[in-house]
């Protein structure tokens, strides 16, 4: 018998990697229903080294998860492939929102919080002060929108947090639990009376903690990385992980869909669509919640129902490349607050983050929580492409006839799984 990992995305590959570290002599298998590993991370390398990312494109180096990921990259021998964006880079400093028919830069320094910046009607410091004096509300949970509105005010919730939630998980901030997506901030209020007090206390605690960094984590700290990717796109990481686990005798089975999981007294039986059966000591699932719900339905119907209640949304992703420089102000890109009622969630300036000659490479994200309402269940790719080009013309003034390359992709994204990817 062996340890089996269901799902061969980044979570599944990472699980297999750490199992090899902990149990080097135990048989391990990865079962993946598609014909490739890597999950939602997919980097298409086109002409002149242009990269179209159809999923996540950067990783944050901060915190314990960030240190763990950088250590993993060192272990894989992948350090020389890393391309960091430093905190001083325009892509790190310039993050924008599109509101009231124009782009607005978000505060990016300690000094900027004392200045009024549109679309906000007062300096950011005023909202932070409001949090200090807002009364604590003892509750178990509420939506992230209601939480932020209560602590900082409606403008902060409408223009900042709602747009941020669109960028993180393409969701509706008015329906996502604060305990799910920003649990630590909620705990700060419940424990200390305000978010600001909690942040200050946490900062003081961190100053007294010595972490012995070395290798890539130490380099990232010294050079003040904001985010990073790889020379050949983010898919480099799952590809190297795949190579590592295969070399260490992990059995990888593609095109294998598990349709039933049966937990016995001392083992677990997995039944597959093709009639195959496997017995395992332990099973680690990195499947989307709905997929896991389907294979648990027969034996654990209550758990299956709970998993199905985890909402999923669909995000349309359109990559576009133009043969000249078209972005007047460099930055990471912009997000669109839902109150603007546009069909896009935001636009990423890929060529500002990772320049490629004189080309402008953009990624338009659309739909999310509102995808079906805007486009129906199964829109033609041409509809998404046309929408992307129209929105780029309206928001950035980019005309359609300058387009030289494009790709269109849309997929269902499960909020909990996407957050796992973003945290890594």
TrEMBL record:
Transmembrane segments: none
Annotated InterPro entries: Amino_oxidase (IPR002937), FAD/NAD-bd_sf (IPR036188), Protoporphyrinogen_oxidase (IPR004572), Zeta_carotene_desat/Oxidored (IPR050464)
Enzyme Commission code: 1.3.3.4
Cofactor section: FAD
GO terms for biological process, alphabetical: protoporphyrinogen IX biosynthetic process
GO CC annotations, alphabetized: mitochondrial inner membrane
Main location: mitochondrion
Subcellular location(s) per record: Mitochondrion inner membrane
Gene3D superfamilies on file: FAD/NAD(P)-binding domain
Location of the Amine oxidase domain: 10-400
Keyword Heme among UniProt keywords: no
Pathway assignment: Porphyrin-containing compound metabolism; protoporphyrin-IX biosynthesis; protoporphyrin-IX from protoporphyrinogen-IX: step 1/1
Record's keyword terms, sorted: FAD, Flavoprotein, Heme biosynthesis, Oxidoreductase, Porphyrin biosynthesis
Function: Catalyzes the 6-electron oxidation of protoporphyrinogen-IX to form protoporphyrin-IX.
Family the UniProt entry places it in: Belongs to the protoporphyrinogen/coproporphyrinogen oxidase family. Protoporphyrinogen oxidase subfamily.
NCBIfam families: proto_IX_ox
Full protein name: Protoporphyrinogen oxidase
